[in-house]
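Quick one, tokens below:
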């Protein structure tokens, strides 16, 4: 007999225990579907974030092209596309011994590049993520694009409306 007089299945497992296990499995499956679908159904917002490359040469600048995909250089996750960039002279603060003051002096053939990256992001109350890669001001980002690579920090962030 499948169920004996004590209510055990095959004489070993209680029917109540079996029902409890099945209920737990069903709850787990439903919870995972709810959590997975909530991540997939979130509207993507367009963000623009700025990263700063310091003390680069002209060859680095020549490799930057608009609409080039950029990636995390370590995990190789896509984290946006080059929207625009701005080049400024690289400067150092040096002591002027004659005047006894400090001066900001441009360094020849060295530049700072401010790269503006456009990306579709998922925004929550506490995070902004692009392709499951968290973006926040001050975050160190090892960034790579076609022809350029460097370790930099996020220095600016703009959030546009959801698509």
């Amino acid at each position: 007999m499948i169920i004996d007089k004590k209510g055990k299945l095959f004489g070993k497992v209680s029917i109540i225990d079996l029902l409890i296990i099945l209920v737990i499995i069903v709850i787990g499956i439903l919870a995972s579907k709810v959590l997975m679908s909530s991540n997939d159904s979130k509207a993507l917002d367009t963000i623009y974030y700025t990263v700063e490359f310091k003390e680069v040469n002209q060859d680095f600048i020549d490799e930057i092209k608009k609409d080039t995909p950029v990636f995390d250089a370590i995990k190789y996750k896509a984290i946006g596309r080059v929207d625009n960039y701005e080049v400024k002279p690289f400067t150092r603060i040096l002591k002027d011994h004659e005047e006894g003051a400090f001066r900001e002096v441009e360094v020849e053939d060295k530049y700072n590049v401010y790269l503006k990256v456009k990306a579709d992001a998922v925004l929550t109350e506490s995070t902004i993520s692009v392709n499951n890669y968290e973006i926040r001001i001050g975050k160190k980002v090892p960034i790579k694009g076609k022809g350029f690579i460097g370790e930099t920090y996020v220095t600016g962030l703009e959030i546009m409306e959801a698509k």
